[in-house]
């Protein structure tokens, strides 16, 4: 496994990019070679590079070819989006055991979806009425169900949700 770490910025400015901001940049975010040196930084951060065949830019509605998305696994933040060329990939270890490289060169990568109306703590009313879910099902059962729903939602590509069932969230202390 190769060392794919970058020094942490004291200002943190390189880590303030939200995934959507980085993914929608029409011009790729470039790091200077000075950013890769360890001058002044005592702590180094592991990074993951996602090599995308195409990256959808929702701001310009274009598919940008051959982009590498750099992500901090510690914070989950996108650190940068840059183009790559085939000849630059010669030194990249795409083996299955390398956790620092995600090979999506044959895929199109999209930014995370947003759903502003979900009910994580509820299940279909055809199964159990809303009143019975709130009054007869235990908080533990509903919390476990919400965890399963959250995982399914994330695996479907939704990275941001807003749960409208505030009463259910209050019961779980969330």
UniProtKB/TrEMBL annotation:
Q: Which InterPro entries match?
A: Metal-dep_hydrolase_composite, Metallo-dep_Hydrolase
Source domain of life: Eukaryota
Q: Which residue ranges are recorded for the region named Disordered?
A: 1-41
For bias type Polar residues, the affected ranges are: 1-10
MF-aspect GO terms: hydrolase activity, acting on carbon-nitrogen (but not peptide) bonds
Q: Which SUPFAM superfamilies does the entry mention?
A: Composite domain of metallo-dependent hydrolases (SSF51338)
The name this protein carries in UniProt is Uncharacterized protein
């Amino acid at each position: 496994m190769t060392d794919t770490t970058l020094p942490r910025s004291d200002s943190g400015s390189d880590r303030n990019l939200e995934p959507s901001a980085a993914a929608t940049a029409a011009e790729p975010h470039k790091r200077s070679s000075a950013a890769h040196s360890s001058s002044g930084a005592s702590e180094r951060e592991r990074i993951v590079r996602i090599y995308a065949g195409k990256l959808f830019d929702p701001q310009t509605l274009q598919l940008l070819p051959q982009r590498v998305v750099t992500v901090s696994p510690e914070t989950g933040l996108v650190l940068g989006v840059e183009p790559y060329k085939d000849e630059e990939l010669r030194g990249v270890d795409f083996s299955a055991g390398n956790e620092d490289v995600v090979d999506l060169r044959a895929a199109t990568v999209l930014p995370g979806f947003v759903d502003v109306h979900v009910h994580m703590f509820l299940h279909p009313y055809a199964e159990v009425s809303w009143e019975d879910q709130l009054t007869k099902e235990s908080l533990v059962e509903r919390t476990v169900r919400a965890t399963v729903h959250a995982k399914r939602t994330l695996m479907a590509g939704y990275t941001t949700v807003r749960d409208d069932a505030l009463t259910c969230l209050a019961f779980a202390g969330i």
